[in-house]
């Protein structure tokens, strides 16, 4: 076989593999299933966007679970609002928050694990259409929870349930596991031009 | 005066100007006023994040106005949900959307101007704490509305009112006028791995 014929044969085989792969992807695309979304980056909107999805999910008539892994990290306004709908939104804020100040690591780990137990309950309830794990990335980055165990619980969730994980510094394993990753980057910030935190915007 | 003394004098003058500038910025930071936020970029979360802010604002007991400049661009779920609160949320979706297909530019301009008239009403109502101008950037990019006129109305709004403008391709003048600009970038997308649009996530 001449060199160029051999190349043609290899090319054809490669194209056939490629076609098979594309066909498989098209077939997969027909499957509707719950997605794992990650909102990371240093910009604003990571949690807000998750709460927009809460509204969207409620609009579709599905229930929502929210676990906030850092107390006070998300807006008190959003919490106040969504707590209006206790039948539709199961809203949980982790105990007293992490002890950044007191540096009591064992207590932080215990609190994070309590919060995860709540998350596990939501992740095994197929009446819940969306689970928001707000600032989970921070708890993972500090090693308060084990990534493998967390991902195993997320992967074992009901087939149609969506999960949104927020927080800067998403671990590579979380990004790897995600279906969609959005990076929120700060282009320009009012704080930098000297405006203080605004109710309804920052908290 | 020796060369190095002269340099010291210039340095001191520069530092004094710098200190005056910093003091001024600190004084300005005490002022609380409504911000103009722009959510742009090709990633997800531009509108979701605005709707998260709607929830936050409602949680603070303030009213909200929403004008969607492209029909069907934002989630039907969010619309369904926030229409539950007609006393608190004034929700408007532009007529029949733009005629991307029919290419009737005059009709598009007329529709965009109708929508802007609604926005003007919200932007002059000081009982409204937040105005969401969803996909306004698209209408501006196509020249359906004039940027200068739009910015003049936004700047003339009540002092404490926040405005969020969404849509990819924000014009430089919009970015210039904004207090905060967040760029949502796509890092990884489920569609690219062959998953079709999901209710509650994409619409």
Topology:
The structure is a homodimer of 203-residue chains.
Chain A: H1 3-29, E1 36-40, H2 46-59, E2 63-68, H3 76-82, E3 89-93, H4 105-122, E4 128-134, H5 136-141, H6 147-155, E5 162-166, H7 172-177, E6 180-188
Parallel strand pairs in A: 1-5, 1-6, 2-3, 2-4, 4-5
The gist of it:
The structure is a homodimer of 203-residue chains. Chain A folds into two domains: 31 residues; 161 residues, Rossmann fold, CATH 3.40.50.300.
Task: Give a written overview of the molecule.
Two copies of one chain form a homodimer. Chain A contains seven helices and six strands. The first copy, chain A, is of the alpha/beta class and 203 residues long. Chain A has two domains: 1-31; 33-193, P-loop containing nucleotide triphosphate hydrolases (Rossmann fold), CATH 3.40.50. The first copy, chain A, has a six-stranded parallel beta sheet with strand order 3-2-4-5-1-6, with helices on both faces. Chains A and B meet through α1, β1, α2, α3 and β6 of A and α1, β1, α2, α3 and β6 of B. Chains A, B: Belongs to the Cob(I)alamin adenosyltransferase family. Chains A, B: Its main location: cytoplasm. Chains A, B: Keywords: ATP-binding, Cobalamin biosynthesis, Cytoplasm, Nucleotide-binding, Porphyrin biosynthesis, Transferase. Chains A, B: Required for both de novo synthesis of the corrin ring for the assimilation of exogenous corrinoids. Participates in the adenosylation of a variety of incomplete and complete corrinoids.
Task: Please identify, by name, the CATH architecture of the largest domain in chain A.
Answer: 3-Layer(aba) Sandwich
Q: Give the topology string of chain A: H per helix, E per strand.
A: HEHEHEHEHHEHE
CATH-defined topology of the largest domain in chain A: Rossmann fold
Counting copies of identical and different chains, the oligomeric state is homodimer
**Shape, per Cα inertia axes of chain A:** elongated
The most extensive interface between chains reads: A-B, 65 and 65 residues
Name the structural class of chain A.
Answer: alpha/beta
Average residue pLDDT of chain A: 82
**Unreliable spans of chain A:** 26-30, 191-197
Counted beta strands of chain A: 6
Largest sheet descriptor of chain A: 6 strands, parallel
């Amino acid at each position: 076989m001449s060199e160029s014929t051999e190349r043609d044969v290899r090319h054809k085989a490669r194209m056939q593999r490629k076609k098979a792969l594309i066909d498989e992807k098209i077939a997969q695309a027909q499957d509707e299933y719950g997605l794992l979304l990650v909102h990371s980056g240093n910009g604003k909107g990571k949690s807000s966007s998750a709460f927009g999805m809460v509204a969207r999910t409620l609009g579709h008539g599905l229930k929502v679970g929210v676990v906030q892994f850092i107390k006070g990290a998300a807006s008190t306004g959003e919490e106040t609002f969504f707590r209006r709908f206790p039948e539709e939104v199961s809203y949980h804020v982790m105990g007293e928050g992490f002890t950044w100040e007191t540096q009591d690591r064992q207590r932080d780990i215990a609190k994070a694990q309590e919060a995860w137990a709540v998350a596990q309950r939501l992740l095994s309830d197929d009446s819940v259409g969306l689970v928001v794990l707000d600032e989970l990335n921070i708890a993972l980055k500090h090693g308060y929870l084990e990534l493998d165990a967390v991902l195993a619980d997320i992967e074992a969730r009901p087939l149609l349930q969506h999960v949104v994980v927020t927080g800067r510094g998403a671990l590579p394993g979380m990004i790897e596991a995600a279906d969609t990753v959005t990076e929120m980057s700060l282009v320009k910030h009012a704080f930098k031009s000297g405006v203080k935190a605004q109710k309804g915007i920052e908290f």
